[in-house]
User: What shape does this take?
Amino acid sequence: MKVKIKIFRYNPEADKKPHYDSYEIEVDPTDRVLDLLEYVKGNFDGTLAFRRSCAHGICGSDAVRINGRNRLACKTLVNELETDKILVEPILGLPVIKDLIVDMEPFFEHYRSVMPYLVNDEPEPRTERLQSQEQRERFDDTTKCILCACCTTSCPSFWASDKYVGPAAVVTAHRFIFDSRDRAGAERLRILAEEFGVYRCHTIFNCTIACPREIQVTKAIGEVKRAIATGKID
Ligand code: SF4
Ligand code: F3S
Ligand code: FES
Assistant: This one.
């Protein structure tokens, strides 16, 4: 089939403002949008800039807006889009470095703010820190995050203020708060109860719709809000 792919282009060092380039290309319906970007770069314009690494939905580096919705380019097939017109733009709310590449540093700053690591200062046990299946299950969903930023950059509260810690950071916090081995849950809840913490979330659900790992992002945020309100981590 033939598709028309329209791609956002912007080089802040050379361009006064962004523009779009369009290409008509012959594709297979089961090609991925990442294949199309590679094709354009290889055959029409080698200066096209986009991130990719694994090409298999694991590294989280190729989040872009495809026909208005945040997705991973490597996990989006042409035939899923149900149209022969494909618009590819950078994710919103982070500064564009070039074309489809955004500066992820503000995103990772929020990530780091919630202490994204296990904290336990108790003396080391003789064997590993045991956990029951139920204890492990409690935070299983939020372990699946690949830090692609599809959620945070689809959230209107984040667009309104990039000081909002954002759903991805809350998902990471959830992963540790509800881990029975961790001892810094109360500290993370204190951080997330601050002005630009979890209460900036107005339950809009864009994050859950956008997540390529199908994490129940809004549910995790709700559980963190409840833990703050009740003072109980359970
Ligand atoms: Fe990406 Fe989902 Fe993690 Fe958000 S929660 S960063 S959408 S994997
Ligand atoms: Fe934003 Fe998701 Fe909350 S879209 S407002 S973080 S439910
Ligand atoms: Fe790694 Fe798409 S290139 S997730």
Summary: Residues 52-55, 57-62, 72, 74 surround FE2/S2 (inorganic) cluster (ligand 3) (CB under 6 Å). The longest strand covers residues 2-9.
